[in-house]
DNA sequence: TAGATTGTTAATCGATTAACAATC
DNA sequence: TAGATTGTTAATCGATTAACAATC
C-alpha cells in the first residue's frame, strides 16, 4: 500500500477513464475495460485495486460511482486544493489558465513574480511581488506550489517556500531541487521529455534501416 | 541496449550533469560523482554505461568530453532537430519561447493554430493556419511535433500529422492518443503530475498524524 | 607496490503476469 | 446450474544492487 508509485499513477488514469465512461452513460465496469483503455493488463488493474483495498463484485465488475469515490478518497482528491504559482512568465501564466486544473478541484489562488510589470493584485488570480511569498504561504497555509522560475532562481526561491511551510512543489525548472523530507518535490523536465522522444525516434529509424538490409529498398 | 527506458532517461540526466561539471572546469568524472548528483547508486551508473557500451578507465574514471560526445551519439542528439508546435494557445506559445530548447539543438520552426487572431506568418516562429499543417510536415520532412491542443481536437489533428509522416509527438492533451507503430507518442499530463503530488502530500500528512499517536502532540 | 576505480557477474528486490479457486 | 469475473497466490520477468576480479 505504501511503496508503489506506478500503481498510484495508474489509479489516477483509471479515475480519468471512469469519469469518461460515466459521462457516456455507463454505470459499471470490468477490469478488462479499464485495462484496455489505460493500456495495461486486467490482472494489473485487479492487483492495483487489491493493493488499495478496493473491491468489486464477483461476476458483476465494479460500480463506477463507488470506484470514483473510493479513488478520490485514496488519492486525497475529496477537497479542493489551493495552489500557488511561483513565477508568472510565459509558462506560469499558461498554467494559471489551464482548464484541466479547474475541473479537478485544483485552484490556483495566487501567483508571484519578481517583475513589477507582471504584478497585478486585482487580477482574477492576483500576481503578487516575490516579497510577499513567504508570508502568503504561512498565512494561508498553502501546501502546494508550482515553480516555473528559471534555473538560477529556482533553488533559492524553493528554499523560501520550504521555510514558509510548503509541503509539495511541482518543479518545472531543469534543476534537481534539494529539499528536506517534509517537502516533496516532483519535477517535470520538458526538455528531457523531448530529448527522450528524439532518442526513441532515432532508434526506430535505425531499426528500419537495419531491416531494409534484408528486404531490399523500397522507392521513396 | 534496447529495452530499458529508465536507463535512457538517466543517460539524459547524466548528460545534463556532465555539461554543468564541464562548465565548472572539470575534465573527468567518477561514477560516484554522477551517482551523487543524479541521485542513483554508482553501480547503476556503471551498469547504464556498460548497457550502452560506454567505457572509462580503470582507476581514472571517465573523460567528460568523451562521455558527452558518446552520449549525444547514443541519444541521437548530434544534429539539430526541427520541431513544429501544433496549437499556439497559452501553453504552446510558452513552449515556443522555452529557453532550454534552444540550448539543446532543438529548434521550433513553425507553429499551427486554427484561430486567425493567432496566426502570423512573419513572426520569428511563424504561426500558420491549420490547413497548412499536413503540407508543411511533408514538404519539410518534419519528424517531431509538440501537441498543445485541447482534448477534443487532439486525436483528429494527431491523425493528420501521422498521415503526413511525422515520427513522434509530444502530447500535452490529457487524451491517450492512438497511433500506428511508426509514430511514437509521449504524453505529459500536467494534471496527473499535480494530482500525484497531492497524493504524496496527503500520505505524508497521514503518516505524521499516525506517528504523533506515540510521541504526543507538539504545540502549533 | 598499494590503492582506487572500473566493468561484470551473481544476488536481490520489486513489479507484473498467469493461473485458478471462490463465488455471484 | 453454467458461465463469467473477481481476488489472491505463485511464477516470471526485469531492473537494481552488491560484490569482487581485473587493472591502471
Q: Please report the two chains with the greatest interface, counting residues with C-beta closer than 8 angstroms to the partner's C-beta.
A: A-B, 59 and 59 residues
State the separation between the terminal residues of chain A, measured CA to CA. 53 Å
Quickly count the helices of chain A: 9
* Structure classification of chain A: alpha/beta
Shape of chain A: globular
Order of helices and strands of chain A: HEHHEHEHHEEHEHEEH
Rg of chain A to the nearest angstrom? Answer: 22 Å
Nearest-integer average pLDDT of chain A:
93
The unreliable regions of chain A are: none
Describe the structure.
Two copies of one chain form a homodimer. With 220 residues, chain A is an alpha/beta fold. In chain A, 49% of the residues lie in helices and 15% in strands. In chain A, strands 5-4-3-6-7-8 form a six-stranded parallel β-sheet, with helices on both faces. In chain A, strands 1-2 form a two-stranded antiparallel sheet. In chain A, α1 runs antiparallel to α4, α2 packs across α3 and α7 (133-140) runs parallel beside α8. Chain A is globular. In chain A, 33% of the residues are buried. Chains A and B meet through α1, α5, α6, β7 and α9 of A and α1, α5, α6, β7 and α9 of B. The structure holds a DNA duplex (24 and 24 nucleotides).
Could you write a compact summary of the structure shown?
Two copies of one chain form a homodimer. The first copy, chain A, is an alpha/beta fold and 220 residues long.
